[in-house]
TrEMBL record:
UniProt KW Membrane keyword: yes
Topology in the lipid bilayer: Multi-pass membrane protein
Transmembrane segments: 7-24, 44-62, 102-122, 134-157, 169-190, 216-237, 249-270, 282-302, 323-345, 376-401, 433-453, 459-479, 491-508, 514-535, 564-582, 594-614
Protein known as: Amino acid transporter
Species of the source: Nocardioides albus
Length: 629
């Protein structure tokens, strides 16, 4: 606990110093005409000096902590599928120093969350809910924290890379994993494309030729393709360089919105010269706004440390401590940050009389502090609009490469994706990830081109599959409740049930065009993972390399994995149908809306009970089979 608090304190002090030094440097220019004595009397001069010293001192302590942790004699690039660390708390290995430190684990969690979401969701949520927008962040934060508690506490039981998929494998069998693998792979692969589209959209404020009111132009789409390739290609650099760069980017991504909150809270709002095109606010409900306005999209990504738990430094207790600090701290911290951003945004919107949907850049460009314009903040906003999405894309790309590696090791996908190959990449003599990243790049670019670089569509295709993955993980905890400890852990199944039903309500309240697209990509991805191995067995030309196991053949037998697969597939179909019904209901018909919500809760509750029962039945049958053999 003490080491974790010290690490967090060092990061916060370094971030505070960078913020103070950056602000002071930007304000030093007017002091050039003053004498030395006058300069020494200016508070901004001492803010700059103190911030620089604070950042330098904190960074020095961070470096010292890294060196004392020990250096590894060789890099570790492989991950172990379906195995835990198996080390005692006091056991030390030569490779442990090369595993993820607390700062790097926090960098994965916070770096995955702090992306393009806050820049685009805050104006969008205000447009949907007006002054009640803070309720959207509160509802999303409670939902995400509940899901995080369930996923973290259960995921730490085995502490293995790929646990997000192989815990469901243990509880339901391989057929359910097919659905979840498609959900995770598509969602994670799309994320770099969505973040690249967001980064280019941010750059379009400087170069208007990159975008128009309908989205990215041809030039903008081409640049988004290049940025997507650059994000995925960056993960091919030496692993330690990728992790440290991500930690530094995360620090910067947190510092910029903190600066915005501080100065916009002190600033006097002004009337924007260009009020923005969006009318509003609309009458969207809180639950509907969670996906439509990008709230859930802004929160997802905290699970990145759970994708790579087997790579975290230390024994079981140290790993659990680091993962808990990273995930819980990220969810709570992002809620506080997003809420603060929403509060200052709402205040400036109300005082300036600007139209709903006005961007951060327009608000900051017109605000003033002590009579001095804050137009320099526009530079930070535009910098965040480019850096934050790219950093988040790096996290998702890194995590996906590890998940696909474990899928390949278990032959859910071709075994060739986890084989070691000679590599000429810097810092690597052999590599097993470049082919995975190449496949992910192709998938991301295909989707990016298919949707024309539209960020909202990409965000939906990223959000719906992740929510389904979260929901099934909640059911897994209830199925394997015998693995839970005593005390508060016994309440986790209740939290899992609540999160499962809440996810169903959120999906049902979302716009129909978003729901069907999200479920459709899950369906097509699952179908591909089921059919391709069957075509390989039929010796279809061109598929000789696809040697994944033919799990689809189980559907034509009395395999115990069939029941949970059918229950989950029927539940997803029912949820999609209920969303279509919700689309047909007039929002003014309060009775009809609440009747449908009750029906959704009943259907979700029934699906939860059936999935838990199917999972426990699968466990009993597979254990009997194992005993006989």
């Amino acid at each position: 606990m003490r080491h974790a608090l010290n690490a967090i304190a060092r990061v916060l002090l370094c971030a505070a110093g960078l913020v103070m030094a950056t602000y002071g440097t930007l304000q030093l220019d007017p002091l050039k005409s003053l004498s030395l004595r006058e300069v020494l009397r200016e508070p901004i001069f001492w803010v700059t000096v103190f911030g620089s010293l604070l950042a330098a001192t904190a960074f020095a302590f961070m470096q010292r902590a890294q060196h004392t942790a020990g250096r590894a004699p060789r890099p570790v690039e492989t991950t172990t599928a379906r195995t835990g660390s198996g080390k005692d708390e006091n056991e030390s290995t030569a490779e442990d120093g090369d595993k993820l430190s607390l700062v790097e684990v926090v960098g994965l969690a916070a770096g995955g969350v702090i992306g393009s979401g806050w820049l685009l969701a805050v104006p969008g949520l205000h447009e949907s809910l007006g002054e009640a927008a803070l309720l959207g962040w509160a509802a999303g934060g409670v939902l995400m924290l509940t899901i995080a508690v369930v996923m973290v506490e259960f995921g730490l039981i085995s502490q293995r890379t790929g646990g997000l998929l192989f815990h469901p494998h243990d509880a339901f069998g391989p057929l359910v994993v097919i659905i979840l693998a498609a959900s995770l792979w598509i969602s994670y692969a799309i994320n770099p494309a969505a973040q690249a589209a967001a980064a280019v959209s941010g750059l379009a404020e400087i170069f208007p030729a990159l975008a128009d009111p309908d989205g990215l132009t041809g030039t903008g789409s081409a640049l988004a393709v290049v940025v997507t390739a650059a994000i995925i290609g960056f993960v091919l650099l030496p692993r330690r360089l990728v992790l440290r760069t991500n930690a530094a980017l995360t620090l910067l991504k947190i510092a910029i919105p903190v600066v915005l909150v501080v100065f916009l809270a002190l600033a006097v709002p002004g009337r924007p010269t260009d009020p923005g095109p969006a009318p509003g606010p609309t009458t969207t409900g809180v639950l509907s706004a969670l996906i439509t306005s990008g709230v859930i999209y802004a929160y997802i990504g905290f699970q990145a440390p759970l994708d790579v738990t087997g790579e975290v430094r230390g024994g079981p207790r140290a790993v659990a401590r680091r993962v808990r600090w990273a995930v819980y701290g990220t969810v709570v911290g992002s809620f506080l940050l997003y809420s603060a951003l929403q509060l200052v945004y709402t205040e400036h919107m109300a005082a300036s009389g600007a139209e709903h949907g006005t961007s951060y850049a327009l608000l900051t460009d017109s605000a003033a502090l002590v009579g001095a314009p804050l137009d320099w903040l526009v530079v930070l906003v535009r910098l965040a609009a480019i850096i934050a999405p790219i950093g988040s894309g790096i996290v998702f790309t890194y995590a996906l490469s590890r998940e696909v590696y474990t899928l390949s090791a278990e032959r859910y996908v071709p075994s060739g994706l986890h084989e070691q190959r000679a590599s000429r990449l810097p810092g690597r003599t052999s590599d097993s990830f470049w082919l995975i990243l190449l496949v992910n790049l192709v998938l991301a670019l295909v989707v990016l081109v298919a949707v024309g670089g539209d960020w909202q569509t990409l965000a939906v295709l990223n959000t719906i599959p992740i929510l389904i993955l979260y929901a099934v993980t909640c059911v897994v905890l209830a199925v394997r409740s015998e693995l839970l400890g005593t005390g508060l852990q016994q309440l986790l199944p209740v939290a899992a049930y609540a999160a499962f039903v809440a996810i169903a309500l959120v999906v049902n309240e979302s716009a129909w065009d978003r729901v069907w697209k999200g479920v459709a990509v899950i369906g097509w991805g699952s179908l591909a993972l089921l059919v391709l191995p069957w075509l390989h067995r039929l010796r279809v030309p061109g598929l000789g390399w696809y040697d994944a196991k033919n799990h689809g053949a189980r559907l034509f037998s009395r395999d115990p994995a069939n029941r949970p697969f059918v229950v989950l597939a029927v539940y997803l179909a029912a949820l999609t149908l209920l969303s279509a019904v919700r689309h047909r209901i007039d929002d003014d018909s309060v009775w009809s809306v609440w009747s449908l919500r009750v029906l959704v809760m009943i259907v979700a509750s029934g699906a939860f009970v059936l999935l838990v029962g199917a999972g426990r039945r699968y466990l009993r049958q597979t254990r009997l089979t194992t005993t006989r053999t």
